[in-house]
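Example 3.2
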Amino acid sequence: MDTLGQDFKLALRKLRKSPGFAFIAILTLALGMGANSAIFSVINTVLLDPLPMRDPDQLVRVYDTDKRTDKLPASSLNFRDVRAQATSFTDLAGFDATDLSITGPGGEPERLQGAAVTAPFFSVLGVQPSLGRGFAPDEDLPGKSKVVILGNALWKRRFSSDPGIIGKSVLVGGEPHTVVGVMAPGFDFPLKAQLWRPVTWEKDLTDPANRGAHFLNVYGRLKPGVTLAAAQQELSRIAKGLEQQYPKNNTGIGARVIPLREEVLGNVQPALYVLLAAVAAVLLIACANLSNLLLARAASREGEISVRLALGASRGRIVRQLLVESTLLALLGAGLGLIFATWGLDALVAMGPENLPRLQDVDIDGKVLGFTALLAVLTSGLFGLIPALQASRVELSRSLGEVGKGGSTGGPRQRARNVLIMAETALAVVLLVAAGLLIKSFVRLQQVELGYQTDHVLVADLSLPETQYTWASPATAQFYEQLLGRVRALPGVKSAGLSVHLPLSRRNMRSTLRDMSRPEPEPGNEDLAEIRVVSAGVLEALRVPLLRGRLLRDEDGTTPGNRAVLLSEEAAKKYWPGEDPIGRTVDIGVDYGKGGFGGVVVGIVGNTRFTAPNKEPAPEAYVSFAQAWSNDMSLVVHTNGDPLALAGAVRAEVRGLNKGLPVANVRTLDAMMGSAVSQPRFFMLLVGVFAGLALLLAAIGIYGVVTHAVSLRTRELGIRMALGADARQVVGMVLGQYLRVTGAGLALGVGLAYLASRLLGSMLYGVGGGDPLTYAGVALLLGMVALAASYLPAHRATRIDPALALRQE
């Protein structure tokens, strides 16, 4: 141990004597290790612990399936039947994401992301409120008192962390609800919910006509010892039974069980692994650079090492000393890297997409510190071992004779440097190709034809309390009619409407679509469409093109005789091939309590990518909103100028009609589009940053190696120039050697990049992993950088004075 301590003291003295080398080495390592620590901290939280719940491996997501999709939400009646029959689960629970208004004490009226859940929801997830209690088993039954559980952030912000809120009443949706619990900090499942209330098993949820309405998200907890396969087998059997019992709605309806972890992570998992691979490549490039620096440093220390060997030091002792120096550099780099990682995490969280699970909980914890320490040890061996072994193999007779002359060129060392340059060039190519593909994919995603326009559109969410505005009542209709009249009259408003369903949001509904002039289809063969409930003015505000017929009018749907429907071009082509559906009466398989849903097709409009820009248009039906005056609607306003400039005026018009109504989520449709592509933008930016860092490190590495090689060949180049070689020949000789090395690295990198591009498959849109323009652009860029990095020291070689070079011998 005493000897090891002496080695560390000696290593520290050596670094103090070479502050420039120490600064560059530590900074290079800090950048590489800091990036790795930051990304590992994200993976540690998001991938390794995405579900802060009890025994998360037992949690599953349960879907219905049909011939078109294997991820269909359940209908409420099917859910009740499955829950009653299934034995593979300790219990099943469901939720319906909904916006909920909260009014009364604590602040202004608000509309918040909430969830209507079945009573066992929290017990199935294995979480309980940090204050108060969860829902009792019977609190989702009709006639029970209305209760609510608050999110921790809402409790702190609106109620000032008052523990006395338990047992008090707040208005949720205009109705008094008793607060029974407050969730722990950070819990916002599902979909960043801020408050939860029980569903009530009555009305639409229990109407037999709605067995075909699939909207309920179902979760389950497997019993100990029950496998996923066993649960799948049981649910498939139950689905078969329901198909026989309810052939009209359940023919072709199956079941699917997947781990909840897989559901929550979605396509985030491969993307984060790509990021980890990217930062690992950056660290490897940093290690290659540092190995080259140490090889050059070892060449200048040959005399010192030879003297120590001559005085009796063993080669093992020399190797250990040099590895101690490498370890010290790695530890100092790791310490600075943790500081960089802390700063980087703040930026990551700030720019991260909302749908990246638990990103706000990412932190530098014990696991991250352990990972960084392990990284320091591995890194020190990675960049220090080859230079240490090379340095210990000096020839005593030659090296002692060259003490003070700066060492020798050494063939093995030069070959090692060339291999390292080739390796870091190849890694840089892989990262640059990945960044290029992601950038091109993102550009394609931004350029995709949505079928509607997002500019100059203001969106605001409304939630009418059921105590004042009964579902689909005349009072509800009157409020909406007056509001639209006021908003349309505002200066700067071109068109305005109300919609249950918004583009680029989670509010979507799919149902059957039947032409009433045709025979009733066989169960399981019904036509399906995405249903959009909208008023007149919405499609005008979104500028969805009318292809033929007419758009919706304010009077459509106000009486049973004038119900109107619009179809998308995709729906018309798919379900009425060679026919014109205008004038046909269609029925939609959802009952909103007004005696049917659907109407006469009055027009055909263009296809839209309503749910996401990367999803192909589906058959769509737009239904006049007077058929379903929902209490939860969104105002869509097309403006002449800046949409947000009208936000205050819109709020004033709402409060002019009812000052207690919250106007929530006032934003532009452009901002919603930005959120829809935030995840690919996030990963594109990060990979782009790491690729840029890799390119910089590769350029520095090439420059350093060529500079060092030129300094070692001073005498040789001087002799060549004395014998008549001109500057162009000297530059060509130096460039030729290193451009061949980087060219080999480039070729190797292209092959590796093509193989690695398969990992990007789910992250790419509109571009293949073998896109030739991307590869050609990367090759050209890296070739130019390598040429510039090699040319500068090569050009300096032409200024060597042959006489001075000859006198150095």
